[in-house]
Amino acid sequence: MNTTALSPRILRPADMDPNWRWDKRIPALGHTAVDFERRVDHDRLRRYRLSRAKAALKGSGLGALLLFDVNNIRYVTGTKIGEWERDKMCRFALLAGDEEPYVWDFGSAAVHHRQYCDWLDPEHCRAGVVGMRGTIPPSFGLMKHYAEEIYGLLKKAGVADMPVGVDYAETAMFFALQEAGVRVVDGQQVMLGAREIKNIDEIQLLNQAASMVDGVYHMIWEELKPGVRENDIVAMANKMLYEMGSDDVEAINAIAGERCNPHPHNFTDRLFRPGDQAFFDILQSYQGYRTCYYRTFNVGRAKPDQVDAYTKAREWLDAAIAMIKPGVTTDKVAAVWPTAESLGFPNELAAFGLQFGHGLGLALHERPIISRAVSLENPMVIETGMVFALETYCPAKDGYSAARIEEEVVVTDKGCEVISLFPAEELPIANRY
């Protein structure tokens, strides 16, 4: 196993590529590797992510991190066995003291890791499964078995007397760990902190993912006409994304006409009709790195109320983008957005997610979270290398239409660069009459 480049030092994005300058345009370099361009360096990516996790662990006061969240497992170990495992709770990993990471995987996947994941110690790739959301009952003893194995590895690493951060687990697994002598605390915050700052490889993957959605929105703009249904657009977008190389189309919202207000966050078989306002959100990933990318269109024509709603949503979004630079706190960004009450909601929690910012990475929602409901009293500092989405929503005065726009941004050393590039400065009219 090659461990020469593994280090607990926190590496900043510029440290990871001596040729990178933030005044250069972020590349979207395609899906393949070539010998004549430096593209995503997966070895560098894995070293960077593990170094961030190790540094976060070292600074946390914890002895180890026990991970069941598949995003955290991938971040630390560089392993992934398919999107089907995302909600199964069948895999786990351990980062203990100064030891290299352990990963317990689903049956033969552990054997695959030993053969193909040469950045991992083969002896640390183990077959294992715990509860699978309770379908394997705790009485069978697997949770007890693995809790005791984990405690033994904590002793080997010399950290058995220190608290262990767990991101999330089945309730019965918490009990099994405690009975084995493990002192469990919240580890998700530690991992979220590690994942905040992206290196150039992560940023390139996020930009590549966004470029795929650029193309899907051009297709939607061409296809959006009467006789087409919301679910037809969802089907066409799924097909196009998978053909372009997506590894997971997590969800697509497709919402039109009277369904726009209030925002239902879904899609149906509703037919698009002339004059409909319609908005879409495309959530998909390329090599694990996700998009959250809204666009609004009108079908054939637009009424003044719909244009007005779009203009306001755009103004609120642009005001937020203008605030993004290193050192600015998230409360200052949230403060430029309208209050929930001014939009007809009783409080900020009732309007949560409508004027919103959230980190993007291996998960759809990472740090920073920007919301009037959260950020005004709990601000965090925006830093170079963060990547997040900013989204606004404005209901129209007609009582049922609404506009929803979202931009993905990379925080540079001076401000931010928008990487969601399908035109949205003005309300797009598809198949104009």
UniProtKB/TrEMBL annotation:
InterPro entries hit by this protein: Creatin/AminoP/Spt16_N (IPR029149), Creatinase/aminopeptidase-like (IPR036005), Creatinase_N (IPR000587), Pept_M24 (IPR000994), Peptidase_M24B (IPR050659)
Domain Creatinase N-terminal: 49-197
GO molecular function, one term: aminopeptidase activity
TM segment ranges: none
Keywords: Aminopeptidase, Hydrolase, Protease
SUPFAM superfamilies on file: Creatinase/aminopeptidase (SSF55920), Creatinase/prolidase N-terminal domain (SSF53092)
Name of the protein in question: Xaa-Pro aminopeptidase
Organism in which the protein naturally occurs: Devosia enhydra
